[in-house]
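anyone else get weird line breaks when pasting these?? whatever heres mine. first is seq + tokens for prot A
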Amino acid sequence: MAAPSSSSAATAASMCARPPLTTLPAAGRVLLLPAAASSLIRARRPPSHDALLLRRPSSDVRCRRRLMTARGERPQEEEDDAEEQHVGFDAAVALFNRGDFHACHDVVEELWYGAEDPARTLLHGILQCAVGFHHLFNQNHRGAMMELGEGICKLRKLRLDDDPFSRFRDEVAAVLQFLYRTQKELAACTDELCLTMDGSPTSYQLLGNFAAGQQLYKMEADADGASSIIFSASASSQSVPLRVKLPALHATEQHLTALQCTYEYM
């Protein structure tokens, strides 16, 4: 079946306005917090002595200190927790790239709390992508598509080009189109009802609920060391399973710092 029309992309774009922050509890269950509840967890920690350096006129110091929390640093009263003190953006990247999306979410969420734009928007987008892939491999296809769509919206808002973050954004967008296409083929008809899968908001919602709880997607390592997402369903007539590249984030804390220091937020 042909890839979805531009209307499907418009559908994904329409999700940009959805404000809730998504969080994953430690037990592996999925919880979507409403906007009102999210304000309770976004309270900033008391500023440390280092945070006060933000007031210095030096632009170099200002750029460094604006990313203090995004580097895994903590206020002085929390420095006794050595394990948390050394968890930063590089650790989040490593977790994402090895498929530990739940743990990646937890790390990025901590960084997101204290970051400022544009890093804040970037981290929020990465967080939602991690949640989306966690959903995908745990049979929550609707949740996966919605979170990936929202994450893409955050990353597109930054209007980045030809850098590790823009390449990650494009790879995630390719996965979202793959999910829409494969589920569209699978959900086109049920035993009781044929659905018109035209990319409209209504059909998108119907699509997302179809095959809930079924293991349709799995990760598979490729010969070149990368990984792919494999679509496989008993109802599918594909002799060769469909696949798409699993996105990888090839960025470091230095890329995040450079973005924070040089990017003029739109």
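and prot B, same format (seq, then tokens)
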Amino acid sequence: MKNITIYSYDTCPYCEQARNLLKDKGIKFNEINLGKTPEKREEISKKTGMNTVPQIFIGDECIGGFAELAALEVCGELDKFIK
């Protein structure tokens, strides 16, 4: 299974939805809280060109945010994508 990493903030509702979707499916993930590690904010922004959260990586690929994660789940591709 590919590693999943979520760059997030505690107070972000979309971050919470992403965490819940993965937890409900029993999928383990790493979370980097940008509120607690602000140096990562600039690093991830340079890497992806985005300033929004969550930013979700499956393996080395940034899939986007919660909307993209949910879309993968709805179309039945999330399980295939993470293997």
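btw re prot B: The beta strands are 4-8, 30-33, 55-58, 61-64. The helical segments are 13-24, 38-48, 66-74, 78-82.
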